[in-house]
Specification:
The structure is a homodimer.
Chain A: E1 2-8, H1 11-24, E2 26-29, E3 32-36, H2 39-52, E4 59-65, E5 71-77, H3 80-83
Antiparallel strand pairs in A: 1-3, 1-4, 2-3
Helix pairs in contact in A: 1-2
């Protein structure tokens, strides 16, 4: 399935969540990762996110779409993911 | 169609993009908006975004899905949109 992850996380944990998401997905933009995952990997990712974040204050949203052709992506401005490698 | 917008924008223009996106969509999380738009409204939004951003440096991604049932949303941690109204 195609997965988009966005996070809104306290600065102390930003590096941890980035490091974790990089294992599963591709960096797209500031606080956005995207990629293809099996249902099993998706479940693993959810568990790992739960270990890294402070559930009282941090927020992570996972959008998933079974068929990637169902989702269209349009970029306005600079495509950050291909021009910068800063994570 | 269901639309998710994420942005990575220079601090000077963050308030402008938030104000613009609020006219079309609902705030979900830091730099993420979401909602239903007709194709016409989607085109208008794309034009308006082009007027607000600096295309050399800023980046806005619009994900669109024709049928909202195709997309699943899972929140881990705090659901920011319903607990805070800070935009």
């Amino acid at each position: 399935m195609h997965v988009i992850v966005v996070y809104d996380i306290s600065i102390e944990r930003v590096n941890d969540i980035k490091k974790l998401l990089k294992k599963y997905l591709n960096w797209v933009q500031n606080s956005v990762f995207e990629g293809e995952l099996t249902l099993g990997r998706m479940k693993e990712l959810e568990i790992d996110i739960g270990k890294v974040i402070d559930k009282e204050n941090d927020s992570v949203i996972l959008y998933s779409i079974n068929n990637p052709i169902w989702i269209k992506k349009k970029i306005i401005g600079k495509e950050k993911a291909t021009t910068e490698n800063i994570i």
